[in-house]
């Protein structure tokens, strides 16, 4: 099963892998035509009803694969209003080759006749709300025919994710859907065929630019759309929590506060004036700080706990107590990771170990790490949390899904890059589901590292990544 949002991401990733949308449209149209070959005898009459989006584009392609049939293509709307280049190109191809085409600008003008087959390609995953005109009238007209109705991707008017329809929807006999089944089709009373359209498996397995689509564009978001992050770190180390907090800010968080021992507050502040500190009593996290930190945590959208905390027994016990009582979303990094397996919590944790830390948590690693994503998925399931295991290939797993990130470079083994990643994950977890936040953070962090190496060669330091996070998250790669 794949949601519309994930489908759009995978489609974008396929494009980045060298398989552009127009190629996928060709495969989709071909698959629809093959379904018609199975359903109808040669010379049967086929009415293709195409909308102006890519769903319609699929059917415009299908028309070219139906030479044995008597095909008429009805385009709903003027050709100039076709929404995408690739659909428009396929319309132009039909026109140039003098296919039997009609444009319908007024719903009253739709003359379907009495076809043997109707191809419903008005709307697919791009539908929002109830069908408007001329689509609504066309849906009623389609439902009134005695034809076998073949819907492209989803019956028009049906929401691919929920199966809901807010008004009239096409009553299809059969549905040819692409790449993977859609959740909304479960409630549709029709034969559903899933057609492979040549999307490489890597477009789903590897993070790519499509994974960033869920973030939206910076101009669409406003201050307050992201969220507030609390970094709980520092003690024996002072640089780590500062890096984490600065990374969270650059990854979009509206506000980041650092809870650290008062003994190091001045030094943490010295890294950046923009950091807001909430110092707690003492020189390392300990039992007395648990309640004040929990109070602070309750006022934030996410918490990042671990960077620079050290592994003093008292500190680890305090981390356990905090995680047990906390109920929100937390990124757990560095020394704090080792307490996670024994912690019982209602919190949603994103754990970011490297392989050494993973072993310390009781997880299994393998030399051939790339092919052993199952180890991460299984251990994540055992923990009940999201795992982001850092390495040459980062593996992100949540017990069900997994994704592999291959951005980044050997220069990133330098200290502090993990702190940056944890901060980015904390910020992104304010706006994305935990698994997505972890995947996008890994992708962007690696991309920032790649950009840094490209700009200045090797000799990378962690702050180089921080400066490049906004571009890595919000700028296209074409
Ligand atoms: N990876 C993918 O996502 C792929 C998608 N493909 C096809 O592309 C389709 C999605 O294409 P699009 O994103 O262009 O979307 P659609 O073709 O589903 O619809 C977009 C158009 O419909 C209009 N519209 C939206 N809601 C409406 C309503 N309630 N009443 C009337 N008009 C409405 C929009 O203004 C827009 O012009 C899929 O369903 C599938 O058929 C395939 O070509 C292959 C790959
Ligand atoms: K459709």
From TrEMBL:
Q: Which cofactor does it need?
A: Mg(2+); K(+)
Molecular function as annotated in GO: ADP-dependent NAD(P)H-hydrate dehydratase activity; ATP binding; metal ion binding; NAD(P)HX epimerase activity
Keyword Lyase in record: yes
Q: Quick one: which residues bind AMP?
A: 418
Q: Name one GO biological process term.
A: metabolite repair
Q: Which Gene3D superfamilies match?
A: 3.40.1190.20, YjeF N-terminal domain
YjeF C-terminal domain ranges (all copies): 207-476
Q: Which InterPro entries match?
A: CARKD, Nnr, Ribokinase-like, YjeF_N_dom, YjeF_N_dom_sf
Q: Which reaction does it catalyse?
A: (6R)-NADHX = (6S)-NADHX; (6S)-NADHX + ADP = AMP + phosphate + NADH + H(+); (6S)-NADPHX + ADP = AMP + phosphate + NADPH + H(+); (6R)-NADPHX = (6S)-NADPHX
* Keyword NAD set for record: yes
The stretch of residues making up the signal peptide is none
Cofactor binding remark: Binds 1 potassium ion per subunit.
Residues that coordinate or bind K(+): 55, 120, 156
Q: Which residues bind (6S)-NADPHX?
A: 54-58, 124-130, 153, 240, 308, 354, 419
Q: How does it assemble?
A: Homotetramer.
| Entry-linked HAMAP family | NADHX_dehydratase (MF_01965), NADHX_epimerase (MF_01966)
User: What protein name does the entry list?
Assistant: Bifunctional NAD(P)H-hydrate repair enzyme
